[in-house]
Specification:
Blueprint lengths: L1 H10 L17 H6 L11 H25 L1 H22 L3 H6 L3 H20 L1 H7 L4 H12 L1 H19 L5 H31 L2 H24 L3 E3 L2 E5 H22 L3 H4 L21 E4 L2 H6 L4 E4 L2 H14 L2 H13 L15 H23 L6 H10 L3 H19 L1
Antiparallel strand pairs: 1-2, 3-4
């Protein structure tokens, strides 16, 4: 009977859903079983992993520093490149080789939607900067103005073309897979472009509002790694088995201190604080914003008696930096926890292997996504002053005045303008 059963099994056709060899970024079985007890302090390979991460981090630091030195446009280009890598990693996450072989052109549809979304998002963000860049040339000004005017129409019909393409590409027995990929593509576009849109907006408000929050996330990540490396004993969350309370608290304190001091350092470079109003690559010069002008705070009598200086210089932006440091150390890590849960749902260790010791670009940008949105909202709400037009001010004043008072106000304003002309 055993021989007959063996023959029947060997002669039966193989199913397409065969068990594949575990990929390098899948979670090892021994780690997944431990779930919350696999601490970094107990890892026998932790020193080798630390040096790999250190070399990769140094390489990234040097590269990013050079790009930041080059200016706004190069930083924006870097964001676009990272965006493409992230989209590629996420597109490949749910791909199935068997289905893709039978749908050879379906992959291009994902990238069609991606570049359509890129044109829409960046067209809206950079419209004013484009106009300001070419104001000296009438032909270019008209061309860019028309491009901006019809940008939404162009993007809409590009999307409709992709939609029609998707409908025409539907194949029997692959409907579920194709509609799943269609929904997955749109979710990726929302996640990737929400983060990048706010990041680019922060860049044009001033490089400071890009580099400072990004540095806080990096500092918090490094702090959590080293505090967990040497002192981690208490698991923090089961989604990330190597995260510990010791690492989380130690990194939070270190991030708050670093935020206050690092903001003072960065705030003294004018080319980092000036907003960019066009797409030129020249170095910026502008009137220093009041939040980057030092205020001198006298030291208490006891401290001034023992210290050589009587007062300290503090930039107002340092008080804002404390709030950003608090968010970077308490809330932003939950972006990483979300990504960890997502990876566990798909039984993978990392989204990719582009960065040795760190995983893929998506693994590095999980907390940055949350931070970029917060910084933009915080900057617009608590840092940027409210701009009031003349018409808005006059309307507010006129609401509280009677007809005779309004006439008297107009008469007085007319006399003032006439005197200035003379």
């Amino acid at each position: 009977m055993r021989d007959i059963q063996t023959d029947s099994n060997s002669s039966s056709p193989k199913t397409p859903n065969v068990r594949l060899r575990r990929r390098s970024n899948e979670i090892p079985a021994e780690i997944s079983k431990l779930n919350g007890n696999y601490l970094l302090v107990n890892d026998k390979y932790k020193y080798k992993s630390m040096w790999i991460r250190a070399y990769s981090s140094l390489w990234m630091l040097v590269s990013v520093s050079l790009i930041i030195y080059l200016g706004h446009l190069y930083i924006w280009a870097m964001v676009v490149v990272i965006q493409i890598f992230m989209a590629s990693e996420l597109f490949n996450l749910l791909r199935r080789a068997n289905q893709d072989k039978r749908l050879p052109k379906f992959k291009f549809l994902n990238w069609h939607f991606f570049f359509t979304a890129m044109l829409f998002v960046y067209g809206r963000i950079l419209s004013q900067q484009l106009v300001n860049t070419v104001t000296s040339d009438k032909f270019l000004y008209r061309f860019v103005s028309n491009l901006i005017k019809y940008q939404m129409v162009i993007c809409y019909f590009l999307y409709i073309a992709g939609f029609v393409w998707f409908i025409l590409s539907l194949k029997k027995r692959y409907y579920k897979y194709q509609f799943g990929q269609y929904a997955w593509t749109h979710m990726i576009l929302i996640v990737v472009f929400t983060q990048s849109a706010f990041t680019v907006a922060n860049i044009f408000e001033g490089i400071f509002w890009f580099i400072f929050p990004a540095s806080l996330i990096a500092m918090n990540d490094v702090g959590a790694y080293f505090f967990g490396f040497y002192f981690g004993r208490t698991p923090l969350i089961k989604l990330s088995p190597k995260k510990t309370w010791e690492g989380f608290i130690g990194a939070s304190v270190a991030t708050m201190i670093a935020a206050f001091t690092f903001a003072n350092f960065l705030g003294r470079f004018q080319w980092l604080t000036c907003p960019r109003k066009d797409l030129s690559t020249s170095w910026l010069q502008c009137d220093t914003d009041p939040i980057f002008k030092p205020e001198y705070i006298p030291l208490p009598g006891l401290l001034s008696h023992w210290l050589p200086w009587k007062e300290i210089a503090v930039l107002p932006v340092q008080w804002h930096a404390l709030w950003m440091g608090l968010f970077a150390s308490i809330i932003a890590p939950f972006g990483g926890f979300f990504a960890s849960g997502f990876k566990r749902a798909f039984k993978i260790k990392d989204f990719g292997d582009s960065i040795p010791g760190h995983g893929g670009f998506t693994d590095r940008m999980d907390c940055q996504m949350v931070m970029a949105v917060f910084v933009y909202i915080y900057h617009q709400s608590f840092v940027v002053g409210q701009d009031y037009s003349v018409e808005m001010l006059l309307n507010q004043i006129m609401r509280n005045l009677g007809s005779e008072e309004q006439l008297a106000l107009y008469t007085k304003l007319g006399k003032i303008l006439q005197e200035r002309r003379l």
